């Protein structure tokens, strides 16, 4: 039950923070870089695919970051393990795109990988703290 709580927190918090970043804070940056990809970019995002991403990615966040932190009883493992998981996962996506897509920029990859590390570390830490509070541990 504890891991389910952590998962639900992560699956709710991750897209909210990501939306603020992608839709408000860094919107112009991403829009200008994605424009270089031309017809490869959808006019509207595939919301089902996005939802599936958050559902699946949150499993990894809990397994690789939140659960070890809960076992240790400290928030720090959630932060650094989450950041490492985010770095690796986002690097996989961005470096694959850099290797295979014309118009994908190094700048986009650097910013996106850094964002993935920060975002996942923060989400894992929030999920850890909320789970401890909700479960009374």
Describe the structure concisely.
This protein is mainly alpha-helical. It is 83% helix and 0% strand.
How many domains? The number is 1
Broad structural category: mainly alpha
Number of strands: 0
Tell me the strand percentage band.
Answer: under 5%
Distance between the termini: 13 Å
State the helical fraction: over 70%
The outline comes out as elongated
The main β sheet shows up as: none
Number of helices: 5
The oligomeric status of these chains comes to: single chain
The helix/strand order is HHHHH
- Estimate the mean pLDDT confidence: 92
**Stretches with pLDDT under 50, minimum 5 residues:** none
Any idea what the radius of gyration is? 16 Å
Spell out the key features of this protein.
single chain; 137 residues; mainly alpha; elongated
Describe the protein:
This protein is mainly α. It has one domain. The protein is 83% helix and 0% strand. The protein contains 5 helices and no strands. The longest helix is centred in the C-terminal third of the chain and has 30 residues. The chain is elongated, with a radius of gyration of 16 Å.
């Amino acid at each position: 039950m504890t891991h389910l709580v952590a998962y639900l927190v992560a699956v709710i918090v991750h897209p909210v923070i990501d939306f603020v970043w992608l839709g408000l804070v860094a919107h112009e940056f991403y829009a200008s870089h994605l424009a270089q990809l031309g017809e490869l970019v959808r006019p509207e995002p595939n919301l089902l695919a996005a939802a599936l991403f958050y559902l699946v990615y949150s499993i990894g966040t809990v397994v690789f970051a939140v659960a070890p932190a809960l076992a240790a009883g400290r928030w720090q493992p959630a932060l650094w393990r989450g950041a490492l998981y985010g770095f690796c996962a986002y690097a996989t996506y961005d470096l694959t795109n850099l290797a295979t897509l014309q118009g994908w920029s190094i700048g986009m990859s650097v910013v996106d990988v850094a964002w993935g590390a920060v975002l996942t570390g923060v989400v894992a830490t929030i999920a850890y703290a909320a789970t401890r509070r909700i479960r009374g541990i």
